[in-house]
């Protein structure tokens, strides 16, 4: 039976697409000889990079596999062209050889025609056998038949050589050597032609076959899918394997799914514009549920309410959701997802918060990218085309920052980088818990924020700058007004409001996006506005360009009342100075308005390839220098980091050079010693939370919802002490505070646990 086939072009590759819908044959090259033969036959006429066999599920044969099949197809043509079964090739030009011809013809044409296409490995093995037999027969043959045998062996050996140039046979020999024996039936093809499969209406492909010897090291669920984390003995990267239910449904459920998808394709209800993305989705899910229930009833398919809901959620994921991307972005243990150009060839790779960068089993395709991008365009109101090849924005419903690039900037086609925001902001105690910093460093930072130090957080891309700045924001007194200026909205403003913060958000034009819309305000204009909004804490999400001048000018003339904080790309305090003064044109005198520069970096320990994020430096910017702060001792490191021991170091010697500590002490009417007591007490309180979290396994204790009230309580206790004693007894304050934490927060979190859990 001949199946219809077409060539489809995607991502610069040619896909040979066979339609197996309704066919009695299984669309599997590995399992079915006829299927294999048909594909090889078609490859004689068509050229393709990849091969797809489609019924309800699609099997995709990758470039290497297609190449192997193509070579077999070429081999078949070579045999034909060289006439290996013609009489002369079998020895037929001599009369005495006539008697052998019929049998030889049968043998060779079976091997070189039928078997070659249906089971090339068997054909090859048979050929070897025939050669062996012919050789042993030739040894006992009368001399007048020698010629007949020579000609025949010549032909057989030619065929053997040709077989051995193919990748398929080479691969087979390699596997055979490894296994020691031939696997039964068509098992050998199952390992050579393992495929990525996917349901026809979805375009992402998933690879299910797992390599040998891998070790399952973790397993958990995301939405309705299972995530398996594997360790490969020879690879450094872990494997991240998704097992989504839609790739593994019973035929009835699959039927319901595809039918529903067809039926709802034209479904465009009114009034959805006023709903949030989540509401829209829930709306569709319930509409799909009734469609599925109807269909099931009409077709007498037994299905439970729970199964109906599951199917409806899957349909929604591929109609109003982001498909496979949505599944990945729902795994909040991921921090980044990368889909490189050209799409459709390499699997998606991800960065996992526990397992570092991993290769996934998902292949995201150009056609899926197209539909996702059109949704991004309409959501962001920004263009994405040849004239605007960069799209950079925040997905509001999935708390993810998206960067998409396309041609001509990315000549190989569309590529995505997705950064998943943590659902709640990091807190200093959480950072202590993951060893980003030690408690003394946290205490110091907390004190600096309270003392209104102007702070820049710097580091390389993805080093944790924004996360650290958000943690520092949670150290700001909630009574202060905060103005946040960002181009991509990363700071979880609604969450911070829920903790009692008063925040005004200014969203500015994206600096890196080429796709700007006229309605957006430039960062420098936004900042001028922010400064007019009066006495507030000012947070600049990322200092990138011209706004730096405005910011520093304002700081210099004292137009900014309270704390100023921002993140900036760099690798240490010196590079921050260099960038701001030499690249962005801020005056040295203005730059001195910066009090401290905090540096984050990804660090590798002891030759391990896994990176851990660490705060590696806190540097005070001195005020008594003129040209170059480094040469003139204007950069005073207060905290440094030792990679060998994974420890933070307080630079006691440098503290003597610090101008900031005496200045801050004076401002608060304290001695420098008292100021250190304050820092140490803060360190102790933060550390206490971490200890209690670990002791009782109550991670929520380190979330902002607990640390912010705990901070408030701390400041309140200090205030009370000042009122009662005129000064602070830090030991007593710490004792009282710990008691409060135990009796309130710890008790509450423990009581919230379900008994027995
Ligand atoms: N100490 C840490 N341990 C583990 N993960 C961290 C740590 N700090 C930050 N992260 C995570 O690392 C990712 C990158 O962090 P973040 O966005 O803060 O980096 P960034 O330096 O601001 O990056 P960019 O240069 O893109 O602005 C986030 O997913 C964040 O949750
Ligand atoms: Mg950032």
Report on this model:
The protein has 757 residues and is α+β, with helices and mostly antiparallel strands. The chain folds into 3 domains: 1-194, no CATH class; 247-420, Beta-Lactamase (2-Layer Sandwich); 428-665, 3-Layer(aba) Sandwich (Rossmann fold). Helix content is 44%, strand content 19%. The strands form 3 sheets. The chain has a 9-stranded mixed beta sheet. A 9-stranded mixed beta sheet has the order 19-18-20-21-17-22-23-24-25, sandwiched between helices. A 7-stranded mixed beta sheet has the order 1-2-3-4-5-6-13. Helix 1 crosses helix 2, helix 15 packs across helix 24 and helix 18 (523-532) runs parallel beside helix 19. It starts with a strand and ends in a 6-residue tail after the last helix. The model has no long low-confidence stretch (mean pLDDT 88). The site of adenosine-5'-triphosphate has 17 residues, from helix 16.
Set down the secondary structure blueprint.
Elements: E1 4-10, E2 13-19, H1 33-43, E3 50-54, E4 57-61, H2 63-82, H3 87-90, H4 98-118, H5 120-140, H6 146-164, H7 167-179, H8 187-192, E5 196-199, E6 205-207, E7 215-222, E8 225-231, E9 238-243, H9 251-264, H10 277-298, H11 305-319, H12 324-329, E10 334-339, E11 349-352, E12 356-360, E13 362-363, H13 366-380, E14 390-395, E15 400-405, E16 415-420, H14 428-433, H15 439-450, E17 455-459, H16 465-473, E18 481-486, H17 493-498, E19 502-507, H18 523-532, E20 537-540, H19 547-556, E21 564-569, H20 573-583, H21 588-591, E22 596-604, E23 611-621, E24 635-642, E25 647-650, H22 652-655, H23 660-667, H24 672-696, H25 704-725, H26 730-751
Parallel strand pairs: 2-3, 9-12, 17-21, 17-22, 18-19, 18-20, 20-21
Antiparallel strand pairs: 1-2, 3-4, 4-5, 5-6, 6-13, 7-8, 8-9, 10-11, 10-16, 11-12, 14-15, 15-16, 22-23, 23-24, 24-25
Helix pairs in contact: 1-2, 1-4, 2-4, 4-5, 4-6, 5-6, 9-10, 9-11, 10-11, 15-24, 18-19, 24-26, 25-26
Bound molecules: adenosine-5'-triphosphate and magnesium ion.
